[in-house]
Amino acid sequence: MRKQKIVILGAGYGGLMTATQLQKGMGMNEVEIQLVNKNDYHYETTWLHEASAGTLHHDRVRYNIRDVIDRNKVEFIQGTVVEIKTEDKKVILEEGELPYDYLVVSVGAESETFGIKGLKEYAFSIVNVDAARQIREHIEYQFATYNTEVEKKEERLTIVVGGAGFTGIEFLGELANRVPELCKEYDIDPLKVKIICVEAAPTVLPGFDPDLVNYAMAQLERKGVTFMIGTAVKEATETGIIVGKGEDEVEEIKAGTVVWAAGVRGNSIIEKSGFEAMRGRVKVQPDLRAPGHEDVFIIGDCSLVINEEINRPYPPTAQIAMQQGIVCARNLLALIRGKELEAFKADIKGTVCSLGEDDAIGVAFGKKMKGGTASFMKKMIDNRALLMIGGPSLVLKKGKFNLL
Amino acid sequence: MRKQKIVILGAGYGGLMTATQLQKGMGMNEVEIQLVNKNDYHYETTWLHEASAGTLHHDRVRYNIRDVIDRNKVEFIQGTVVEIKTEDKKVILEEGELPYDYLVVSVGAESETFGIKGLKEYAFSIVNVDAARQIREHIEYQFATYNTEVEKKEERLTIVVGGAGFTGIEFLGELANRVPELCKEYDIDPLKVKIICVEAAPTVLPGFDPDLVNYAMAQLERKGVTFMIGTAVKEATETGIIVGKGEDEVEEIKAGTVVWAAGVRGNSIIEKSGFEAMRGRVKVQPDLRAPGHEDVFIIGDCSLVINEEINRPYPPTAQIAMQQGIVCARNLLALIRGKELEAFKADIKGTVCSLGEDDAIGVAFGKKMKGGTASFMKKMIDNRALLMIGGPSLVLKKGKFNLL
């Protein structure tokens, strides 16, 4: 009898968790597993803002996939997914085709530009390791260039961050810590540097406790961040951004660096492959399968799960992706063994938003926290992700131990 | 009686040596000394190629001027020279005016582009600390960007060095050592990187012993450098350079980075101030004064001294600038004391050209040397410059001790 083959697309939090859980739960030779990923490494998406600001080296936010999979049970294939042909039960890679019996789609998110002109061309997005280190180097180059020019362009020292959601705020916290180092490195007066956060919504960190939001804003403002709240980005240009001002007026903000951190959408592979989706996210069945597809699981940022308490979708997070990976692995084995599938239920243990190396705000175990306590909690959460996927040895290798 | 005032313009090798020698040789309250420099630091011009390649941090190639001058005897003024008004005996700075009784002009060199189109706009020159770290960051940014683009542009990984003289060859040596590090940092296949040296003359390092030149070329080629000798740069463009090929043909070399290292000229302040000069260099009297100016000494890269053995000018080097500084200080004191001035005589102890951290070629004390021996000698020469200007404590602070 031919062994059933599971193909997992993407080695982010969801995909890699599925793979490592499967290798633990499966019997010897029970099933064939192939894990496909563009790079040979997994990266901590939730740490990329640090690599982008230059406060943590990008090699600290990634590790080799082969180091956490059991190569006797999981075959790793480095490849780039182009499209999924569900009718033919195969995946088209840039490198060739891959047939499957069961498929796990965990291909992650893309930056969502909401059709705003110029963002794709002129703004950076914190989407992966390549992008993160390019942002770091771009900012460094702006600072390095400033003193070489006879006519000094102060806009080289202006960094605009579009969006005051989770990623935007966390990136601002790192930037505010990084700027004094950059000023020292390139002989620049810190007063000439501007960090501006532009957010269309009427508040930063929507959904967060207002006390904590006020604390976060005050801390970041103290470190030099300027907030323009209730201000929509109309366009990104070669020299900066154009924002709405009042009813009809617009204003240009000149900036050497624009980082767009105002939202993500599911991967465009989802629509390309014919799944019904909202912004690349598929409303999955309780068992995490795509409606109408008995053999396709969709987890992580491309899945949409409703939080029934408030009747709105959960935001895509690493926490949910990992929890889905665990259930997805169990359901795959159940399918193969002819058992019943279980329903996924998110268990939100807490949410902590970093404000830089030693500061944070958050809610965990139902308690509000800020400052050092929250920062400690954030690092514990970061280490926990490593623990869940790679075990204690990975925590020792890549964990965060600069605890207060 | 009013004290005579000596103003020294520039704190490079020549100017700083003059200042430190004066403070040693002068009597208490014998003379007033002002030292003017654009930055508050001195940098080792002969080490800038290392900072440019990124193999030595730019803070290692500079030190604070106030740390080596005796502030009871020498007043340091941070200022930028615009013009010298010899008839009025004053210097125009961007920040104001400075009268003098005796003037030392040691304002250093500028990059010489020989009127080649586009070089000023599109090529970098290794001229100072600001420029060096910009080159380092520009190259890093090219490497960081390569993997972020869907359509890979291999020219981002091409570095063209114009000129195979001293600076060009030393920079190539550092670059060749730096590229493997950059490839590791940015996940780039080293085979995709190109380092191309374009030189119009029929040989590299003209004037050097042919055996040593062959050794240098072989070593650099082994590390991945391609030489295009007898090839003239016709133009620099936004995308690379255009070189002559045969009689009338031209060829474009696409390159993300072009560094022009094919020559220097004296500072344009010289011509602006009405001194008779060839490419910014004044043929000074044997006592180092400018012809027709009893009160103006010109030393370093803006002075021209003939090597009578071959009836050609000495190339401008740190070695000669420092020797001139010593004689200039003695002649200034002689002038003030009404004594006779002495004639400067260059004493070339040797010339060593680095090929990277652990390799070099050179002639010192009449002996040819290469490899580790020459590299050791090079570091000793570098340390000697520190010793002569700042004494043993500066050698300990900034010296090169990674000796083989």
From TrEMBL, chains A, B:
Similarity field: Belongs to the NADH dehydrogenase family.
Superkingdom field: Bacteria
Coiled-coil annotated residue ranges, if any: none
Organism listed in the record: Anoxybacillus andreesenii
Keyword field: FAD, Flavoprotein, Oxidoreductase
SUPFAM superfamilies named in the record: FAD/NAD(P)-binding domain
InterPro entries given in the database record: FAD/NAD-bd_sf, FAD/NAD-binding_dom, NADH-Q_oxidoreductase
Entry protein name: NADH dehydrogenase
Cofactor(s) for this UniProt protein: FAD
Domain (FAD/NAD(P)-binding) ranges: 5-325
UniProt xrefs under PANTHER family: 64 KDA MITOCHONDRIAL NADH DEHYDROGENASE (EUROFUNG), APOPTOSIS-INDUCING FACTOR 1
